[in-house]
Amino acid sequence: MKLRISATMIALLLLIMTVPTAVWAESGQVVLHDIGDKHRGEAVRITGTSSFDEVIVKVIGPNHAVLLYDMDTVEEQGEFLVAFTLPADAPLGDYHVVAGNGSDVAATSFSVVTESDGGGWVPPIAGGGQDGEDTDHLLDERDYIVMSNVTAEGQSKVKLSLDSAKLVNALEALAERNERMPLHLQIKEDASVTELELDVGALLAADRGLWSGAHLSIQWNNGGYELPLQLIADAFPDGRPGAGADDAKVTLVISQMDEPFLKELADKVHAEGGRLLSGAVEFKLFAELAGRRTELRHFGLPSSSFAMDSEADGVSWTAVAYDSETGQLRFVPSIFDWKGESAIVTMRHHADGVYAIAVFDKTFADLQDHWAREEVEALASKLVVNGVSDKRFAPDDQVTRAQFTALLVRSLGIADQSGRMAFTDVDSSDWYIGEVGAAVSAGLVTGFDDGTFRPDDIVTREQAAAMLSRALQLIERTASQTDPSSSLERFRDRNEISEWAEAGIARLVENGILTGVTPDMFNPGDSASRAQSVVMLYRMLMFTEYIHVPDGGGR
Description:
Blueprint: E1 9-12, E2 30-32, E3 43-50, E4 54-60, E5 66-73, E6 79-85, E7 93-101, E8 104-112, E9 138-139, E10 145-152, E11 155-163, H1 165-176, E12 183-186, E13 193-199, H2 201-205, H3 208-211, E14 215-220, E15 223-228, H4 230-235, E16 249-256, H5 259-271, E17 274-276, E18 281-289, E19 292-295, E20 303-309, E21 317-323, E22 328-332, E23 334-339, E24 342-348, E25 353-360, H6 373-380, H7 401-411, H8 433-442, H9 461-476, H10 484-488, H11 499-510, H12 530-543
Signal peptide: 1-25
Protein name: S-layer homology domain-containing protein
Domain SLH: 359-418, 419-482, 488-551
């Protein structure tokens, strides 16, 4: 099952260790085409074919640094394309390219060579490439303005400005050729804090059909940020030329967290029984109109990636978001993909913030011989579920509607939202106010016709299934199309399933997320125990690739 992500992608490469591509064998499901020699500043087009829905492409330079890490959607014809521009000071030598999905990968290489004695090669200019190669979608330092570049108290800060008219021109050029590919912006500057200001007036004035579904992949020396252009429409719903949109701006701020912050974070992780495995980076996104600046704190389903040494087994690894104001760590959905001695960590999250990787190892004394031990301890180690005490989980206890909602919200990595509550029986002082608020905002819960949520009622199997089904729709951005008649006919009590829950239950059963209490009985009105609830969440997270526990516990 591959995610259909039409939101921000953050490609953050905190490289601790890289591995030679020789350890990755050719794949029967992925084929890479030859690239040929390249020159500094030249565009590189990585093309191939695959039977997967998506492929991850990684480029490693001769100095063992990761030059590119990108995820590309495979077209219906089975083809994929990832393009980028080599830096003007790119090291000479062999570059290794790896593309694939999971353990199925293919590898190739190309060389960056010096210009010929006759000076026959010239770096490409905007709008075209060597031998007719189109590079309209590739932007670099020639396309943005460095507004300031200062260093104070050991911290460097660079501020850049980009006019969206350049994006519109690139999109129009691609549209004329009936091509669709991400726009790439390569940032040459390296700083502790990078601020990119995008003047979006030209984009708002353009036909939105031109850039619907398009995104801007912003890359720098050790990472990147993929900005969906649709986000601009969401940030400026009333933005129109002549109505205050001429000065509309979107600003991305990327901050490498300093040593005092990392110590604070490491201490917090240690207090929770874990160990910090990486540095930390903060992303903030702002929208500005008529001089008024607003932080965009909740903007879809972003994705981040880390390349890391894989000495640990990965089962207990987790990506975390850290809120320094509240001192809270929050689980971030993440998968770990092993490549020899290195692991690629891909995170998906719902808002800006500070992100890092940590390792936890949670166990409970009352789960030693329990059928759900693996699932419970895996999600406990990812900070999704808690025990009733440090050493006791109480797997057979029942779960209330508030408790299951909190579990579901945490499993999706959604931050609490404790604003105005629509339910008459949920008070601002209730411990679950933030989780229920987040669930309402995300469309995971609806409550009852009388305006109540009934938080202390025991959650039934069909109620839990309905929430899980809505979570799948949130992740995949598609409505359920499952015909309940075929999936539910195996259950003798199918007529007892409420009509509003049928489609959701059918979809979960069809995909192995939910089973009957026996092969032919579903028991929709039965309560769900703590262990059963966690197993349902675990299967959903595995199905959606929000977590990944490798066979054998790691490599």
